[in-house]
Design a protein that fits this description.
globular; 7 helices; seven-stranded mixed sheet; about 20% helix; alpha/beta; about 240 residues; Metallo-beta-lactamase, Chain A; six-stranded mixed sheet
Length: about 240
């Protein structure tokens, strides 16, 4: 399994980074975890063909995590000329929010019938769902997003990757991360608490409770980026690759 951070940044482009977009490739499937507004640009930058993506899994419906989907769908229809089916799976509210985003950004786009098979599936809370070659377990995140926000534990090809999504500390992260081959956690701030996000000092306090095989920190704000060279841990950047 290859995991590649096409976007490792926050909502504000701190450090000049692309917004959240994590590519996962296995012999069976290729998918994205989150697709922030800059994700299509990031895919072009790193040579990832949009038509190679089988699915997009969404943790929550903020623009820096799902705002790239309207651009992705427009590209699929008019540029990539996509033929293979595409699955978009996210929390309850995904279909309505995606339709609204498409209509806002490209009026009339939501009325087009795609030339490829498009499935939009809403994932129940605290449930395991089989999505083709991928199994997804949802955990509640402590994040205000209008609709439910999740941490996602994704298993495929004998490997498990968990992504916290955006969240303040919650005990749900403990089972979500347990024995995962890779746990990716947001850590937006350094010392100053940020509502509905993790800061490094809080993360540090709870780190002993987390038991993945490997842990990587992402979604860092400006102060966290400045502090990270002097901190313990593995930190993502745009283009960062992990082979599991």
């Amino acid at each position: 399994m290859l995991v590649r951070f096409l976007g490792s940044g926050d909502a504000f482009g701190s450090g000049g980074r692309f917004q959240t977009c994590i590519l996962v490739q296995t012999p069976e499937t290729t998918f994205l975890i989150d697709c922030g507004a800059s994700s299509l640009v990031a895919m072009r930058r790193f040579g990832v063909a949009p038509e190679s993506i089988d699915a997009i899994l969404l943790t929550h419906l903020h623009g820096d995590h799902f705002g790239g989907v309207p651009f992705f769908l427009l590209d699929a229809q008019h540029i990539s000329r996509r033929q293979r089916p595409l699955l978009i799976a996210g929390p309850p509210g995904t279909r309505a929010r995606l339709d609204a985003a498409q209509q806002l950004l490209f009026p009339g786009a939501s009325a087009f019938v795609p030339s490829f098979g498009l499935t939009i599936q809403e994932l129940p809370a605290e449930t395991v769902t089989a999505l083709g070659a991928v199994t997804v377990r949802t955990y509640p995140a402590n994040h205000l997003a209008g609709d439910p926000a999740y941490s996602l534990r994704v298993s495929t090809s004998g490997k498990t990757v968990t992504y916290s999504g955006d969240t303040a500390w919650t005990e749900a992260l403990i089972p979500a991360a347990r024995h995962a081959d890779l746990f990716i956690t947001e850590c937006n701030g350094y010392e100053k608490p940020i509502p509905y996000h993790l800061d490094y000092r809080t993360y540090e306090q709870h780190r002993p409770k987390l038991t993945p095989k490997r842990l990587v920190i992402t979604h860092m704000g400006a102060d966290m980026l400045a502090a990270s060279p002097n901190l313990a841990g593995e930190f993502a950047e745009d283009g960062y690759r992990i082979d599991l």
